[in-house]
Amino acid sequence: MRIPSELEQRFISEHLNADIPQLILSASQFPEIKEMAFVAEQIEARQRIKDKLPDWYKNNELVFPSRLSTEQCSSFQTASYKQRLVEPNWKITDLTGGLGIDSFYLSRKVAALTYVEKNEDYCEAARNNFTVLDASNINVVNADTTEIIEQLPICDAFYIDPSRRGTSDRRLYALSDCEPNLPEILPLLLKKAPIVIAKLSPMADLISTIKQLPKTKEIHILSVKNECKELVFVISRDIEDANPEIFCANYLSNGDSTSFIFRFNEEHNTMSQISSGIKHFLYEPDASVMKSGAFKLIAQRFGIEQLETSSHLYTSNELMKDFPGRIFSVDNTYPFNNRICRQLSETIPQASIAVRNFPLSAEDLRKKLKIADGNEIYLFATTLADKSRTLIVCRKV
User: Fold this and answer.
1) What per-residue confidence (pLDDT) applies to 165?
2) 319/62 Cα distance (integer angstroms)
3) DSSP result, 58-71
4) Cβ count within 10 A of residue 275
């Protein structure tokens, strides 16, 4: 893995918004760039992380070992969040170094970090990038984790992000299919460190994953702009009976974040609170809360009511400003029938449409209603407790 020259760095900086295929085709127009394919790959990698890692995007001295390395890497929000899971005096080993985003952010909090990665190009890129970023407390080790795990020194915590891609670039979600196989190596890791922090696929099922990782102490569900990005399991050798604390965090477009914390037994012991109808305000939980499954507890905590147990929409007459999700004021409600479907576009020509526990997809409903996309109006199609299909017209609070 070579480092871009100063000439190439300037070219990269000047062509950050270039069309990559077109840039490669026009390589002859830039005779000073001898390896356009390499430079184009560096530009494309930066384009992919522009929103996830704006500071890395702007730094011309950083190098990216592959396009794939930018796909599974953490965003600056989720990488920063993980700093709260470690202590300043800790020594940590990152068993799956990759692009090194999590290693770098964790190193800003801990005393020392060992970055382990079997791909030599990734290691060379990491050495360069950590030097550029003045992360002098990171030691880079080029090795296969599964082969050196017995030789790894005792530390305060292991961090691991099992690779979720198989043959033919196929995405994997089962823990046993990922590399390294975390359930298989976990007993040995917990002999060498009291804590294992595992970044897992946002598609993983929480309950089945806890069964595979029975010493789970905490689960952190991380979303960015209402899209679930990561599940982070904190596993402790001291835990006997798993009743993990669940932390739901969602980073908003304006830089703020919402949070909701609970334990599974709280949700299990909570009674459903079903509304008799739609009130002044409508609530939609954010992606992290939806992933957590705390559908009854969130209603109890905020004094709101469920429209129906499977709809995952809530209502109240009093505004609950701190609700972790989107809040709407209700303008009107309509029964879902053919007459309403024919007439609604006359009064609502444009709206953002969402469906919850409804027989039609949002796209099919839009075609049926003949309502264009956009405007500040939102239209939710859902099912109420009496099983009636309902259209809710509302505006964001």
Assistant:
1) 61
2) 47
3) H-TT---S-SGGGT
4) 18
Q: List the chain residues with pLDDT less than 70.
A: 165-173
DSSP-based three-state secondary structure for 237 = coil
Architecture of domain 76-264: 3-Layer(aba) Sandwich (3.40)
What pLDDT shows up at residue 171? 57
Kindly report, residue by residue over 4-34, the tens digit of the pLDDT: 899 999 999 999 999 999 999 999 999 999 9
Q: Are 229 and 197 in contact (CB under 8 A)?
A: no
pLDDT for the residue numbered 278 = 96
- What pLDDT was estimated at residue 256? 87
Residues 219 and 287: their CA atoms lie apart, in Å, by 15
> CA 266, CA 244: separation in Å to the nearest integer?
11
6-70: what CATH class? mainly alpha
Task: Return the bridge partners of 381, or none.
Answer: 355, 391
- Angle (CA) 39-42-45 rounded to 5° is 150
Per-residue confidence (pLDDT) for residue 163, from 0 to 100: 84
pLDDT for the residue 177: 82
In the chain, where the domains are located: 6-70, 76-264, 270-396
Q: Provide the pLDDT for residue 310.
A: 94
In angstroms and rounded to an integer, the radius of gyration of the C-alpha atoms of the chain is 25
Pairing of β 389-396 and β 325-335: antiparallel
Rounded-to-integer distance, Cα 3 and Cα 9, Å: 9
Judging by DSSP bridges, how do beta strands 91-94 and 112-117 pair with one another?
Answer: parallel
Rounded Cα gap, residues 108 and 95, in angstroms: 17
